[in-house]
Amino acid sequence: MSQDTAAHPSAWAAIADHLHHLGTTAVFGLPGDDMAPLGALEHSDVRVVLCRDQRNAVFMATGYALAAGRPGVCVIGKGPAVTNALTGLLEARSAAVPLILIADGTRLDRVGTGAFQELDQLAAVRPYVKWAVRVDHAERLPGALEKAAALAVNGTPGPVYVELAEQIAGEPVPRTGAWRPAVPQRPAPDPAALAATTARIAAAERPLLLVGGGARHRNADRRIERFAERLGAGVFTTASGRGTVAEDHPLHCGVSGLYTVAPVDALWREADLVVALGSRLEETATFGWPEGADQLPVVQAVLGEESLVLDRPGSYVLADVAATVDGWAGLLDGHRPDGAWAERVRSVRAALAQRAADRAEEAGKRAPDGTVPVARVLAELERAVPAGRVLVQENGLQDMWSYFFPHYALGAGGGSVVPSEQTPLGFGAAAAVGVRLAEPAGRPVVAVVGDGAFHLFRAELPTVADAGAAVLYVVLDNGGYGWLQSNLDRVSGPDSRFAFTRPRPTGTDGLTSAYGLNHRRVTDPDRLPDALAAAWREVAAGTTSVVEVAVALADTPPGTTGAAGDFPERAEETEETEEAEA
């Protein structure tokens, strides 16, 4: 319905029409018992992915939103369905993802009576969303839907919540006027703030760019790389900003903070300015910055004031990242750095590539029989799957290897979807389904996940099959929750009566075959290339394939010696190594 005045036959019919207006191609969820949402969507052109768990449904919708750059939509029931979804909302809010969660609610005349599955859902949800509303009257639904969509995509994007009181589900919904557009408005930078920050950038002799998740979908024309070239600046990304810039660019130096290792960490000791684009300077992005780096000036460009970090010296611009970069570039026209810093960045980057190769070779020599070095897994994955792949990740002990550039480097046009600071277990495994349904049919989607995360997700294998979402799952199997085991070993030693990892049959083969999916298990490094190549052929033909790879708990990411609480413990660098890399 696009006429100026409309009367939708029911609330869910109005919602279905609004989703069509938004351009939504997939909805994820587990509706309430009355099935009214499915009745309204029965003959629509929107794909409905029926999940087994509400948390996974929100994860999938989050993956969809991150890949598509438009709102993900999730539909659920009430009571425990809402509390099950809270972890997903926490992740979506932390990742600044536009997401619309629509839930059933107790009918108005039963509120406060102990009705079936009654819960003060607004109170439960509000800490995790930008905006929450309960609609008790049918005529208020169109305005609530339009406001929800506008708030999800504007300012700092984030999740919103719309609760539909049970009594209006079947009522006709009047609407006056066509649906409003729900596109993000991109505020231009304030001229005075732009001029002041430009002067600061122009004065820097050794600048670095830090590209965060807020720059996602704002660099289609490679303006950020051109800006880096104008400054001669080294380019780092945060984990969530990965995929925004080309990783084969000679000024790109990898992921910042937790995932930065020698020799590129030296650049942070030498820099005199950081230009942070769409980053909240979260802990993982700044972890391990060298001593004194808290006094390193930072110029921030972020959309929302809540993303500002003001406990460091510097200045900021509250505006769209793309508009800000274009503004800086225009004001810096004619600016010519002396070139020494850019050459330093290139030389350190080259040394990093050699060091990565050496470490991968060392890891291969130390891998126990019956396991495959993670560095080998990543190398063979790059060979088996076309370069334009999107890598969807978890954040466990072994799967963190892929965060360390250049042990894994995004190919030409490659993408990346990672969990936020919250790192909920199973996010990447589920989000990959949403990513797959948001991306063009020919673009490869690969999920690299730990076995603990994958086993938490396995209940959704029938969902994967029913949705026709062809994903290549590479499961790094260290026998359980390797991060927790590594921390336990540090505290209690190898003889603890507790254990988070044990060798045991996974049972995944039977589950995948039951749903028409494919499965392989690899314990011999020499068999890995054929296994991945065959799995990719199956995925390219339209069927999900799971490759479980046995890995060793001690096969820790580069520059680390194992888990140390929330973060990996840094490996000590020897004077000899530092001199060789200088």
UniProtKB/TrEMBL annotation:
Keywords: Thiamine pyrophosphate
Domain called Thiamine pyrophosphate enzyme TPP-binding: residue spans: 422-549
SUPFAM superfamilies recorded: DHS-like NAD/FAD-binding domain, Thiamin diphosphate-binding fold (THDP-binding)
Tagged with keyword rRNA processing: no
Region described as Disordered: spans on this chain: 556-582
Thiamine pyrophosphate enzyme N-terminal TPP-binding domain segment(s): 13-123
Domain Thiamine pyrophosphate enzyme central: start-end pairs: 196-300
UniProt key word Ion transport: no
Biased composition (Acidic residues): 572-582
Pfam families in the cross-refs: TPP_enzyme_C, TPP_enzyme_M, TPP_enzyme_N
Family from the record: Belongs to the TPP enzyme family.
PANTHER family in UniProt: ACETOLACTATE SYNTHASE CATALYTIC SUBUNIT, MITOCHONDRIAL, THIAMINE PYROPHOSPHATE ENZYMES
Protein name: Thiamine pyrophosphate-binding protein
Native organism: Streptomyces siderophoricus
